[in-house]
Amino acid sequence: MAQKKPVVVVTRRLPESIETRLMELFDARLSENDEPMSRAELIEAVKTADVLVPTLTDRIDAGILAHAGPQFRLIANFGTGVDHIDLAAARQRNITVTNTPDVLTEDTADMTMAMILAVPRRLADGMKTIESGEWTGWSPMQLLGHRIWGKRLGIVGLGRIGHAVARRARGFGMAVHYHNRRRVHPDTEAELEATYWESLDQMLARMDVISVHCPHTPATYHLLSARRLKLLQPKAYVVNTARGEVIDENALTRMLERGEMAGAALDVFENEPAINPKLARMDNVLLLPHMGSATIEGRVEMGEKVIINIKTFVDGHTPPDRVLDALL
Ligand code: 8YV
């Protein structure tokens, strides 16, 4: 007798090729409206499904997992960050969690580099000048920004994405500095000509641009706190494509208002999709709607990873992208 296909609940719309394959392989329940699932819908999903495919817009906390039925064994997250999932609660209930690392590294690093360039070189101001119809022609002192070449980039978290950003930054003539929980291998430091700072405080005080690439965990919540942000030089820029929670957004906003730093480029926010309205009014701040990894190629590869993770798991093997909370 043919085995019953596992029930896989997918919370958001995914690329068509991925949805088609999910339906071929599994008893897939796809999202019809692409709305984030309500709490009640998530509870219903963990009660009835074998596998849930959430995204960062679904908060899977201990309260939701408390309703999980005995058949619910896998959360195959569509995305790399897993800070919206209570990993400890999942482990306690013997629920495996997987994510989709690697395939969004280069896209996110490209976007980060674009953001590192955009604010010091005043791309948005240039576009506004054209769009307003007020451009009367070139002038020597018009729209002067700041040079990137030769500046110091401080990377907070030299994981996959931090490393990919460092490689790009070298190409733009930036000096790479980094702070990480653990110092990376000397070969990696040599390849990137990267300087390690054991003390984040000391690094912050000496950089021209800070770019955040660590995950959001209890240990990194407000890692860039009001106190640490105060260590930045007034000429410094802050770029964040990781998670809003790593920076104290209100403290950052206050410093920008007071001109205590040069500018910021933010793709992620503490309370997405809400954004501090003061930030939106500042000329030296670039705000993007969490689109760091948004390429069609990346989304398809993320979907393929989700499928491989589910397939290996239901076939009785350890999925390749299993998330171990002890490592976070
Ligand atoms: C994705 C992200 O767009 O993967 C992540 O952690 O933040 C994003 O780049 C998102 O996860 C899709 O769920």
Give an account of the 3D structure.
With 328 residues, this protein is α/β, with parallel strands linked by helices. It has two domains: 7-103 and 296-327, 3-Layer(aba) Sandwich (Rossmann fold); 105-287, NAD(P)-binding Rossmann-like Domain (Rossmann fold, 3-Layer(aba) Sandwich), CATH 3.40.50. 34% of the residues lie in helices and 13% in strands. The protein has 13 helices and twelve strands. It has helices at 16-25, 39-48, 62-65, 87-92, 105-118, 123-131, 160-171, 186-192, 200-204, 226-229, 249-257, 277-280, 296-314; strands at 7-10, 27-29, 51-53, 74-76, 96-98, 152-156, 175-179, 195-196, 209-212, 237-240, 263-266, 285-287. A seven-stranded parallel β-sheet has the order 8-7-6-9-10-11-12. Strands 2-1-3-4-5 form a five-stranded parallel β-sheet, with helices on both faces. Strand 3, helix 3 and strand 4 form a beta-alpha-beta unit. The chain is globular. The protein starts with 6 loop residues before the first strand and ends in a 14-residue tail after the last helix. The relative contact order is 0.14. The mean pLDDT is 97. The structure holds 2-keto-D-gluconic acid. 2-keto-D-gluconic acid binds next to loops.
